[in-house]
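User: I'm putting together a teaching handout on how sequence relates to shape, and I'd like one worked example. Could you take DNA repair protein RecN from Algoriphagus limi, show the sequence you're using, and then write out its predicted structure as tokens right after it?

Assistant: Happy to. First the sequence, then the structure tokens directly below it.
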Amino acid sequence: MLKTLSISNYALIDDLHMQPGSGLNMVTGETGAGKSIMLGAVGLLLGKRADTKVLLHEDRKCVIEGWFEIGEYGLKDFFEEHELDYEEPCIIRREISPSGKSRSFVNDSPVLLEVLKELGSKLMDVHSQHDTLLLGEGSYQLSLVDAFSGAYSELSEYKEKFKAYRQAKERWEDLKKKAIELQKEADFNQFQLEELSSLSLMEGEQEELESNQEILENAEEIKSKIHEVVGLFQDDQFGVLQGLGQIQQQLQNLERLAHKFWEIKERFHSALIELKDLVATLEEEDLNVEVDFEKLEETRERLSKIYQLQKKHGVLTVEELIAIEKDLADRVFEFQNLDESLEKAEKEFHQAEKLMIKSGEALTAKRKSCFSSFEKSMESLLHRLGMENAKIKFEHQSINSSISGLDQIEMLFSANKGSQLQPLKKVASGGEFSRLLFAIKHLMADKMALPTLIFDEIDTGISGEVALQMVRMMKDIAQNHQIICITHLPQVAAKGDLHYFVYKDNSAAKTVSKIKLLDENERVLELAKMIAGAQPSGSAVESAKELLAN
């Protein structure tokens, strides 16, 4: 329930505060005074989009804030789902800066506009011209039937089965498309796989082959150079090792003469050991290097095949060729097992379709079970609203599966005795639409568990006894719901628990809209003006008092 509404710097509103009661709140005022502007601000609070055109003062931000009592509406799960603090009261705030940036807050935590819109839909229902247009749409009528019949669990189960059905269908369709592609590529994929598999490629192989090729191509010269180097080290008369041995002997003599030369001797000894190891390694390499023209040709041939395949597949490494081979193997395997996969996917699709249809039929039965009761309830309400010959009937057609079920419904309507029932949007006039919509709001108020309902001139096109019946029905709703009703009819305004008056204030440089909670005397005067104009007569005042008394 809305406890407090504050609006600042919005359109014609400079600063407005309203504290509606828990029952029936009436809002009146002259045309253009700002009643619709106030509703526009409420719309922003509930998640509608805005721009800087709404700013009264372009150098200040617009702030709209609502305080809501939410303790009885079971919203803790919503707050947990969106990681918001659950507090009582719940404070919703919307800010629009001069730069055009819009921000939304729930209990001072910033939220996305979609979250604000979802929360707002659980707190308030605002009647508008858009609702009147929606009333003629089959999807809207279907949602009313679901709410009236309480088919939420059946609808939820159906949507779950429908989602599984769609997924199974997509998998089957995708597999059939893939089968066509695999069929076209089957022989080519098999050929390429065999071509790659025949090489038995191994990771790191290319680098090793290229290194071996380099050695085999220069084997004779490599061996010759090794022999020369080893000879320079090992020659008996002039070899490096012979000379180094002599140096080692002299360093030992130096160490005996002075101990400080021990470190130099040791460093030389280490270097000598390293050089001897180097010579041994060269001798070992000499043994490994062989002049083998047959092996060279084999290496060249294998590298040539690898290079050809790399060029063919547009890659640079053996590892990439191995990855291509694996992918081809998967494709060939998939093709070879295609019939089995298709059969399994088709079976899963038909099973999902069967479960979806079964769930859809249960939903259909639940919906159809309420048609008669819905029709009778609506007709009874319309009779109370002065449409004593009104008839309502649902026309049902089975359709192929959709997200909302297997049903297409059309609400047929006739306002006059003997007239043929026709689709609602074709036969209802503006006043009839208003009464139809109000009857639906009355019927669905408890079904849809909305804390606050706002009616914006829903009494348009009606008067007299019908208006009185409508406001009596509003009072019925107001026993369990908060209602804010904007009206131009004095007989409607007189029945409110509270009466707010919206007016224009021209005392400052800019005209602004203000709102005032009327006391008993002010209320009598305002009702009299609604009856007889700006200068009401004594009889108009008495009529106003009579309206309030009754």
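A couple of points you could highlight for students: The two ends are 27 Å apart (CA to CA). The longest strand covers residues 391-402.
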